[in-house]
Write a structure and sequence with these properties.
The chain has 562 residues and is α+β, with helices and mostly antiparallel strands. The longest helix is centred in the middle third of the chain and has 13 residues, at 277-289. The chain contains 8 helices and 33 strands. It has 3 domains: 2-191, no CATH class; 209-467, Alpha-Beta Barrel (TIM Barrel), CATH 3.20.20.140; 469-562, Immunoglobulins (Immunoglobulin-like). The chain is 14% helix and 31% strand. Strands 14, 15, 22, 23, 26, 28, 29, 31, 32 and 33 form a 10-stranded mixed beta sheet that branches. The structure holds zinc ion (2 copies).
Length: 562
Amino acid sequence: MAFDANGGVFEATGRPGMLMPGQPSRQVENPGAQDEVQGWLTPDVQAAANRAPSATPRAPAAPKNTMPRLTADSSGRLWLAFRSAHPVWWNPIGTVWSEYVVSCAGGSCTGPVYLHRTDNLLDNRPAVVTLKPGVAAVIGSSDNRRQFAPAARARAARPGGRDEVEDPYQNDIWMNTITLEPARAAVEVKAAQLPKPAGTVVDQKEQAAIATIRNYRLQSPREGSLRIVSGEFHRHSEISGDGGNDGTILDQFRYAIDAAHMDWIGCCDHDNGGGREYSWWTTQKLTDILHSPNRFVPMFSYERSVPYPEGHRNVVFAQRGIRPLPRLPRVSENTPGKAPDTLMFYDYLRTFGGIVASHTSGTNMGTDWRDNDPNLEPVVEIYQGDRQNYEMPGAPRSNTENDSIGGWRPKGFVSLALEMGYKLGFQASSDHISTHMSYCNLYVKDASRASIMDAFRKRHVYGATDNILADVRSGPYMMGDVFTTSSAPELRVKLVGTAPFAKVHIIKDNQYVYTAQPKTASVEFTWRDQAAVRGKQSFYYVRGEQEDGEIVWASPMWITLQ
Ligand SMILES: [Zn+2]
Ligand SMILES: [Zn+2]
């Protein structure tokens, strides 16, 4: 759509969707056209309900063309450059995006012109310049990532694991020149109407729930006034080898800031992009550029994946400059004892002041809980929007032997870690694709990086699938605390939901000891444990289940009755 000097509105007679490649396909010679792909802009609201057991919901196959840049030469010829997932979609170092150009003059347009030596990240934006009428140059960088052979050669040259090979993918600058004819006539257009604004797109209900959480203050006799910051630390972007469906890293920040209205985030990728310096550096810079003190607090974060029994873990640091840690060889499942790699990882976290959380612990990405350090791994991703709940067998949204996305590893239930005496706070984060259903809410003194780390270490945190407020205390103590009391332990529970609560459970030492059925969105009650045994430490936590299926998990308190 374009405007003339008098404010008239025009649009091209052709549709650019006809000219761009269709869904990524192995048929390199026949990419189809974007317009041939049906239904990919219409959300399938039943996708989650209809998913196959142990499978994630299937999104409609979509074309992948983005990052448009437009210019015109002096003859009036239009040049549109964009990134596409054709003709190769994936490489171990990340997804593969290539540059295409479409050009229009008069009433006709070219098809998509593939530009060689443009394979690179998605968020790579070659410059488009016109050299003379009918001739354009596209100047950018390629790291050669559509070739698998360099990685295979490097690996073969140095046996001993993928983390020891030298990175064979280096950026070089390339220029493509496209020579067509000068335009003989302007691009054909027709008069158009500006589309009417569709009205407000702000979800008033969500805004109200977020305001309730933001405005809440917990007055702690021990720690003063605490507020909640809502966020998460498990998103991915195209920088991850398996993150091509997630969009750019900027899209992840846009989700956190503009769509979910989060107060903080840990963003985003596997070893910040396979441990490669460029994507690490980009991520680190963005984490500081988008830091808006007291309003939006990005943390330095990455995922470090080691398969079961050691486990994938997501890392959070308050300070910039720490490179992802390479791996030691993995232990076998049947070898007892601690995992050397995890112990090395804990040393690194101790040195640089980080914390981690295991994710999807009851799957092939999980752990048999052979390792824990309460100062360095104070929380667990109990629920993840991309998959399931790993709290305990039989809990809502829990995985089962017949339906466990990512494999069934029942030794990974969080209930078993708690039974082993581990002190883990609860949080929910998203992983791939899923949005608006994973929240890690921290009770902090202020919205600063230091206070976020402090809240993690104290387990002053709760997880939720929606913007739900949870405040669970006992005397002067709060969720996450470990303490001794001389009278029967008492829990003061306050929840503000986004819908009425069907059930609010108190769970003591993995047993349901009390269930309220409030049928209201605001819940406040006190429960006293008359069965507490003197001298024994027990853990107590609260799970709230709304009538609409949304859930909140408050972190446990570990209480010893003297
Ligand atoms: Zn993972
Ligand atoms: Zn992940």
